[in-house]
Give the backbone structure.
Amino acid sequence: MQRDLRAEGLLVLTALIWGGTFAAIKWALIDISPMLLVGIRFLLAAFLAWPLLLRREVSADQVESMTDSQKTHSLFSRTTWLWGSLIGLGMLAGYAGQTIGLKYTTVARSGFITYSFALYVPFLQFLIIGKRPGVGNLLGLFVVILGLSFITDPQVGAIRAGDFSPLRVWRVAAELSRGGWNKGDLFTFGGAVGYAFYVVLLDRATRICHPGEVTLVQMFVCGILALALSPLVESPVLVVSWRLAGALFYLVVLGSIVALALMNWFQRRLSPLRAVLIYSLEPVFAAFIGWTMFGTGMSVRESIGAFFILSGILVSDLWDFIRRSHRT
């Protein structure tokens, strides 16, 4: 596949926008409670994206690539609402975990822990649809877990040679089980697992339903459920301010609509491997923006953990890419 520098540049912009959403969420949380933010964010996104997602004018190539189910299911069909509601639950788990977590942890830690979701997807596919993960997925998961043990490690101080032993995973797990968890990291990890469920369900749904319609339903369901849960799981807070308005504009318009449009239009022009490499910049951008906005850098342990998380995800994808290359 010939390199498309324009597509690559716009996907880098997409990764930059998504990296900025972590700081935008933390900024917004000064004036609004987490679940209320999730609810308002996705209801606004659904309302603004409605005319774009429900455009039925498609090209002949698009019609040819759609399945019979996608052509016949309408917005208000039972199938679309069922899949959209299921995906909306996964979406709520993912974004609620991330948003609540950012109230208690740093932007950098949130970015890298959230990005680890990419390695959970193959294993959830096995649980849900029976698709077995490969050797590269298993190796990558081990490296990611090693990275998480560094980034969530409650210990401070100098790094020692023994810290790189695989047994450190059990030591850190034991310390965390005794109450050493940073509450924000725990919520963020739960959000990453929820987001992995969301990705697996979305992949299945878009093979059956019209992608725009199921996207609209999932945002609506996620937003409504978040607003309904807000008074039950938190003390709702809403302070109307320009700061909150700016953060919502970024999250809704740039983070939800513009970034998704760029991804949908330009990712198909690149190889999957190149797209994965570009998207790996997202937590890096998140860490940099968090440092510039809030002055929260990364410790040596956190930096090592971030390196291992990125390496694990890249190992998983590179392993499959190399295996397919040898077969051809």
Remarks:
- The chain has one domain: 5-327.
